[in-house]
Amino acid sequence: MSSVTLKNVTKIYDKKKVIDNVDLNINDKEFVVLVGASGCGKSTLLRMIAGLEDITDGEICIGDKKVNDVHPKDRDIAFVFQSYALYPHMTVRENIAFGLKMRKVDKETIEKKVQEAAEILDLGEYLDRKPKQLSGGQRQRVALGRAIVRNPKVFLMDEPLSNLDAKLRVQMRSEIKKLHEKLQTTFIYVTHDQTEALTMGDRVVVLNNGIIQQADSPENIYNNPANTFVAGFVGSPQMNFIDGKVFDKGDCVVGIRPEKMVTNGDIKLTVKVDITELLGSEKIAYFNIEDKKCSAKLPADFQLDETLELSINPDDLYFFDQETGKRI
Fold first, then answer.
1. What is the DSSP string of 171-206?
2. Position 276 pLDDT exceeds 90
3. Residue 261 gets which letter from DSSP?
4. Which of 66-75, 205-214, 261-270 bottoms out in mean pLDDT, i.e. has the lowest?
5. Is the dihedral of CA 50, 51, 54, 60 positive or negative?
6. Per-residue buried b or exposed e for 179-189, using 16+ beta carbons within 10 Å of the residue's own CB
7. Torsion angle defined by CA atoms of residues 316, 321, 323 and 326, in that order, rounded to the nearest 10 degrees
8. What is the pTM of this model?
9. Residue 249 has pLDDT above 80, yes or no
10. Which value, in Å, is the radius of gyration of the alpha carbons in the chain?
11. Rounded to the nearest 10 degrees, what angle do helices 92-102 and 107-120 cross at?
12. pLDDT band at 83 (very low <50, low <70, confident <90, very high)
């Protein structure tokens, strides 16, 4: 079993809670993505699971074993960092094998595991090259290979694609998903990129100020956000928010996704367009509604004048409590 369980986990730095009483159950073989803005606590949470950060309070279990006081090397985890952390003077083969050599694994087993990892990651022809002779994507695959040969219970990945260009990030996203399917091991992945989170995770955990805002499937995170933070964080452009009222509930915040702003609906309004952005297959129009900045996502060939006629379906509206931000 390679489940990971966090119970009331708290981390305090200089009297400030950076992780606040987090409860989270990660199932065996699940791919869970921790996502949030910089400083939300996602990397700290990952490092506590790895044992690289002490926890102030609470309990972390890997499988059925409590690991609060277990050294990182004894937790049966593999950590893939943002930086590739490869040894420049070693070949790809030597980099992948390094951890096994340190554990005094016999040469025959090392060679077998290196070959298996190279085959999985399509690195066979690069085994005798040095890291400087590889592309960024190839170097990241070497870092993954070094983790794979250890056969860990849990893979922990901290922003592993952030140093790659946009095209390579898309390619590596699919490669890591395929890797998870092949290895059938628990993956915990940290990113600030909502697209990575929604496309890679079986489940997405949205963090803000060290508190879990919502832990759910990618579909529910997008379509059924628990509060205004989740609704505003996930989606590009972000959800539009305007002040409103709900019968028998008083003041509220009304939200609607930009792609739902031009529909065959019953709510009609006309807005003055401030600026537009052409993004290949689509066009984004920006405007104000009651002094709130809003946007609409339109087809690229949509003809725009200075004004835009909107037609909104009431079923596409979200309602949130004005004080707590929670979904009504």
1. HHHHHHHHHHHHHT-EEEEEES-HHHHHHH-SEEEE
2. yes
3. S
4. 261-270
5. positive
6. bbeebebbbbb
7. -90
8. 0.91
9. no
10. 23
11. 130
12. confident
